[in-house]
Amino acid sequence: MSSENSTANYNGSPNSEKINHLAGTEDAVMQGNANPVGELSRSFSVSRVLAASPVTSDLKRSKMSRTSSRMSNTSRRSTASVMPFLSGYAIPVTIERGKELYAAKKFRPAYTIFDKLAQSKDVAAMYYKSVMLLDGLGIPESNREGLLALKKTYEKSVRTACDPKYQHLSCYQIGLAYFRGMGARQDLNEAVRWWLKAANEVKYDPSSQIAFENQINTESGTLCQILLAKHYATRRPNPDWEKSYNWYKEAAQNGSIESLFQVGVLTWYGLGCDPAADEKKTHETIQTFLGQAAVGGNVCAMANLAFYCLQKQLQEGAFLWATKAIETVKGPTGKKATLAEAVKKVMAMPNNDNDVESVTKAISMAYFVLAHLHNVGAVASEDKEKAGEFFEAASDIDLGLVHSLTKLLESELAIKHDE
C-alpha cells in the first residue's frame, strides 16, 4: 500500500503508554448479539456480515500490496434447479429465487426451495438451509440440526470443485456456533479450529507461483481472520498480541479497513509487532495503516491519526483529520448531532466495524484535538471560547479519556522540549 494517500509525513516515535481505546475488541459477533445471516454490501464490512445474510461476493476493494485486488478465479458452479417448480406451488425452484425470497424476508417459501435443492446436494442451498435451521428462519429453530447440516455443507464443498465461498462461510458459521454455544456446548478451541480452516486458505503466500491477485480470497475467509485477531486480543488472562497483530495484518492485506486501523494502533502501542523495528520503520507502518484506514472512511482511524499528529507536532494533519472526523458524525442538516445519533450514524457507515465504545471514544478524541489546536492557535486561529466548547464536548463524552490524552500530550511535548 502506498503512503501517497496519507496527509502528513510522520516523524518521531509513538509513546508506548497505552490508552484504553483499542477499537473493535468486543463487537456484536464476539458477544453473540448479532444474527449473522444476510447479504453483504460491495464494501467489505464486518458489521454488515453480522447483521445481514450469507456472504455472496468476493472482496472488491483496495489492497495493501502492489496489486489492486486479489480475487478467487475458481469456477462458479451452476445452481439451476433440477425441477422448474415446487409441486403444488407456482414457485420456481432455483437458488436465485430462493435468495430473492430470503432477501425479502419470506423465509418459509425460501426454506422450502433451499430444502428441495439441498436434497440434490446443491452446496449453496445446503448452506442457506443450515443457517435457517440454526436461527429458526422459516422453520422452528433447531441449533443442533443446523450445526450438523453446516458440517455436512463444509464436507460437501471440500469434495466439490466449486467456489470456496460456501466452504469458508460454513467454517465461519460453525466457529460462531461453538463460540456462542449454539447446537453444541460452548468451546472456544473448537471455534478457533474452524475459523483457522478458512483463515489459513486466504492468507497471502509470497512463495506461491500463483499471482497475488489470483490467490483464493473470500469475504468470509477474511472475516475469520478478523475473528481470530479479536479472539487472541481478548483472551484472558493473557492476550496473545503477536497472533492478534499477525491476523489483523493478514485481514488488512485482504482489504479490511477495520484491520488496517487495528494494525496501525497496535504498532503505535508496540503490541504484537517487531520490538526491534527502527523508529523510521515504525512510523512508516503507522502512517501506512492508520492513514489508509482514515482515507477509507474509518472514523476511529481519523481520530487516532489526528491525535498521533498532535503528539508529533504535525498540527496541519491533526487539524485535518480531527475536523474530518467531526464533520463525518454531524447530523443530516450539518448541525451537531447528539452523541447517540453520531455513534449510530458511524456504526451504519461502510468501513466502520468498530464497537460502540470505541466510536464514542473516537468522537471525544477528535473534539480534544480541536480544543487543543484552538487553544494554542496552531493551524486554526486562537479561539479560547471555541477551545472551551470543544474541550467540554470531549469531557462530556469521556472525561477519563480526556485526562489520559492530556497526560500523554504533556509527556510527549516535554520530551520534545528536552530534545
UniProtKB/TrEMBL annotation:
Residues 65-76 have a biased composition (Low complexity). Pfam families: Sel1. Keywords: Cytoplasm, Repeat, TPR repeat. Gene3D superfamilies: Tetratricopeptide repeat domain. Its main location: cytoplasm. Coiled coil: none annotated. InterPro entries: LRP2-binding, Sel1-like, TPR-like_helical_dom_sf. Residues 1-17 have a biased composition (Polar residues). Residues 1-34, 57-76 are annotated as: Disordered. GO terms for cellular component: cytoplasm. It is found in: Cytoplasm. May act as an adapter that regulates LRP2 function. This is LRP2-binding protein.
